[in-house]
Design brief:
Number of helices: 9
Largest sheet: 2 strands, parallel
Strand content: under 5%
Shape: globular
Strand order of the largest sheet: 1-2
Distance between the termini: 30 Å
Helix content: 40-55%
Radius of gyration: 17 Å
Low-confidence stretches: none
Mean pLDDT: 93
Length: 190
């Protein structure tokens, strides 16, 4: 559970705008305790994870899937872009991973994977792409789209051409709406 706990606590903390210190204070923990949880220094236990999540307005729950939620994909992209490598190819592959997971999930599970608000990726292009991919996969089956998809920060004023070979018409309408030109053919692993 250590890595899962780290991902959950970090992504919910960041999405809600808490610093590690502020979250620790909210649950009356030592200031370094949240950092320890987020770097998987030890297994914090379910009760501690639930306390931290409750402080951010979230609740720990289980859904019957092995797929990764959109919020965790966003956190992975954030960590990649913030790392010394800053690999956009890895971040783009994460977008494809999100698309693969949503494509493979059934209706209600697909919605559940998108309920938690993805924290900012540190690059507005990826925030818009995540929203566009989620909207694309949910609307394809007439499923409800979470409100966070419509946040102004999830739309680009200047379109992002993810590849020099991508034409706007090749991008699904949901991605075009968010200002992301990512071809439908590039949304799945090869």
């Amino acid at each position: 559970m250590t890595t899962a706990a780290a991902n959950l606590v970090r992504s919910t903390r960041r999405e809600r705008g808490f610093s590690q210190r502020a979250l620790a204070a909210a649950v009356h923990m030592n200031g370094s305790a949240v950092a320890d949880v987020e770097r998987s220094a030890h297994d914090p236990g379910v009760d501690t994870v639930q306390r931290l999540l409750n402080a951010t307005g979230y609740r720990l729950c289980a859904i019957p899937t092995r797929s990764t939620p959109a919020a965790e994909w966003a956190d992975l992209i954030y960590r990649e872009l913030k790392s010394s490598r800053k690999s956009h190819s890895v971040a783009l592959r994460a977008l494809i991973g999100l698309s693969d997971d949503l494509s493979a999930a059934s209706g209600v599970i697909r919605v559940a994977l998108c309920v938690a608000v993805p924290p900012p990726c540190g690059d507005a292009r990826y925030d818009a792409a995540i929203a566009g991919i989620v909207e694309h996969h949910l609307t394809a089956d007439g499923l409800p789209v979470p409100d966070w998809v419509e946040e102004p920060s999830r739309f680009l004023a200047t379109p992002w051409e993810t590849s020099t070979y991508t034409d706007q018409s090749e991008a699904p309408l949901a991605l075009q709406r968010h200002g992301v030109w990512l071809a439908a053919a590039d949304l799945a692993s090869v």
